[in-house]
Amino acid sequence: xxxxxxxxxxxxxxxxxxxxxxxxxxxxxxxxxxxxxxxxxxxxxxxxxxxxxxxxxxxxxxxxxxxxxxxxxxxxxxxxxxxxxxxxxxxxxxxxxxxxxxxxxxxxxxxxxxxxxxxxxxxxxxxxxxxxxxxxxxxxxxxxxxxxxxxxxxxxxxxxxxxxxxxxxxxxxxxxxxxxxxxxxxxxxxxxxxxxxxxxxxxxxxxxxxxxxxxxxxxxxxxxxxxxxxxxxxxxxxxxxxxxxxxxxxxxxxxxxxxxxxxxxxxxxxxxxxxxxxxxxxxxxxxxxxxxxxxxxxxxxxxxxxxxxxxxxxxxxxxxxxxxxxxxxxxxxxxxxxxxxxxxxxxxxxxxxxxxxxxxxxxxxxxxxxxxxxxxxxxxxxxxxxxxxxxxxxxxxxxxxxxxxxxxxxxxxxxxxxxxxxxxxxxxxxxxxxxxxxxxxxxxxxxxxxxxxxxxxxxxxxxxxxxxxxxxxxxxxxxxxxxxxxxxxxxxxxxxxxxxxxxxxxxxxxxxxxxxxxxxxxxxxxxxxxxxxxxxxxxxxxxxxxxxxxxxxxxxxxxx
Length: 560
Ligand code: GLC
Description:
The protein has 560 residues and is of the alpha+beta class. It has a domain at 215-539: Glycosyltransferase, CATH 1.50.10. Helices cover 43% and strands 10% of the residues. The chain is built from 21 helices and 14 strands. The chain has helices at 7-20, 27-31, 35-44, 82-86, 93-104, 135-147, 152-165, 213-230, 233-237, 239-253, 283-299, 304-328, 332-339, 363-368, 391-399, 405-417, 419-422, 437-444, 465-474, 478-491, 518-532, and strands at 2-4, 106-109, 112-116, 133-134, 170-171, 174-175, 184-190, 195-201, 329-331, 374-381, 384-390, 431-432, 501-502, 508-509. The strands form 5 sheets. Strands 1-8-7-4 form a 4-stranded antiparallel β-sheet. Helix 6 packs parallel to helix 21 (518-532). It starts with a strand and ends in a 28-residue tail after the last helix. Alpha-D-glucopyranose binds next to helix 6. It catalyses: Hydrolysis of terminal non-reducing beta-D-fructofuranoside residues in beta-D-fructofuranosides. Belongs to the glycosyl hydrolase 100 family. It is an enzyme of class 3 (hydrolase).
């Protein structure tokens, strides 16, 4: 799918640029006024970030904190990070190296930065698709640039990927849904003709040919982050962005045969992008789905086309949060209840709704489950509960407030209680525990890259540090993030910013890990910047829906 951006395309993006130069941040414009909508917007937006904001951070204590980046406008994409200039603290020596490495990964399209490549690893003989801009990989890079007051690259990325969405997408003779966003894209430079072309992969070239369900969700989440960070509502308001959101959500909100509000997925359709038994209703996608729905709700115009979606989103959110909080949640009590379940119950009064056979509870779980703490398990479907821990889904559940404040606290408790297993020597495990032997053969199809405690199968991924840090700040436990960042700082630069680490404790640089993996670099920078200035949290966090909100409790271990 090659895509030459002709004059039309350029004209269109030029008109967006002029729109974004407007300084009008009036929220009511986005809401088209009607009072009822304002109320709804309020209840879903994260106005009360001040609930978790810190005192003593340079007078940025207002409720709309996080909307205005330090520096604000255009900044050169080379040179000193604004964060070190703006704060009086002494940055860790590896921060400078990280910024340099991040800027080296920039990809330009017609002279303008458009994204960052997945890995800048010249030593590796096999490039595969690591020289592409992945949508999910770009998110931490985008957040780093936003936090550093460089929003232009993010805007450019959002607009160009939107154009890619508009392409007719075909795999063999089958046409993909209109709303599908690419997993990745590449810029091809033709120096003779002087044109840049884009080549996008919607899953048809990906290993396993899976369409990335997460790309569209990340796109919506990033659009909101951009809007919160810059205060520039005009981008989200454009008919193009509104349509882009509607197309993404149309793929998920259409009626089918489902009896659950969760989204049915193929294996490998998210960050874990190869066969790992993450199919059906994986937490990794459900949490992102929930977050994307909430972000879309806060940005969707209440016009003729938008209104219908707003209704659908609100209804789905209601059902989804109930389902996830009730059936995916596992703590000591719940485990004990499942352990005692009766099976073969018929009718709507069944306690064991999904007919889970207690014998299917894996042995490791009985020891792993602390008395205090809990988490959203990997998957729930008929007679199948995947009890594995998945980091991304649980962190996103906290950030999106899919988890109640009590559940969020319990997830952080679990991380503290099971530090060795989930964090070890390198934060943090993508999932826990690893699958081995016969199970590995059946579940992964004998995947040599996903052997036990490696890569997606219990490997440790530094990129997840930004999600952990954000969740720590949101739950009032910054000391957990500090501890994790300390661990990462001991190794990351020395090891050349690997993609992942292997082993039960995450002690070894991953078997096939790329070096200078961009999201490892950006993830670290975002974690650092958020800890320095927690008001950045507002970009990627949503407060509990006020209608259901119990008071946010601060943990006793809060140290700030
Ligand atoms: C691997 C990861 C995937 C990532 C890609 C590029 O395939 O599994 O999540 O997007 O590399 O870094």
